[in-house]
Amino acid sequence: MAIQERPVSLAGHILPTSATMVGVCVTAIGIVRLMHAGTVGFYVDKLLAIDSILFVACSVISFASVRLTARANQLETVAESLFLIGLFLLGIAAIFMVFQTQ
Prior knowledge:
Shape: elongated
Order of helices and strands: HHH
Oligomer: single chain
Number of domains: 1
Number of helices: 3
Largest sheet: none
Structural class: mainly alpha
Low-confidence stretches: none
Mean pLDDT: 85
Strand content: under 5%
Distance between the termini: 64 Å
Number of strands: 0
C-alpha cells in the first residue's frame, strides 16, 4: 500500500517563513534600540512590534489552514493577505531605518 502525500499548499510555505519573519522583526527592534534613533526610532519600534504580531497571527492561521481541511482555502487566503501586509510594513520600517541613519 503506497502512502499518498498531500501536496504542500501555500500555507505550508507561509508557516515557516512567517515564523522566521517574527525573528527578523524582533532583531530589527533590537537594532533600532541600539541606534538611539529618536522620534523616528520610537515609531519604527512600534511598527515592527505590530508587524511581529501580524506575522504571529499569520503563522497561527496558516497552521490552522494546514490542520483544518474543511476551511483550508479560506484560511490560506487570510494568511497570505496578512503575510503580504506584514512584508509591506517591514519594508516601510526598513526605509525609515535607512533614512534615519543618514
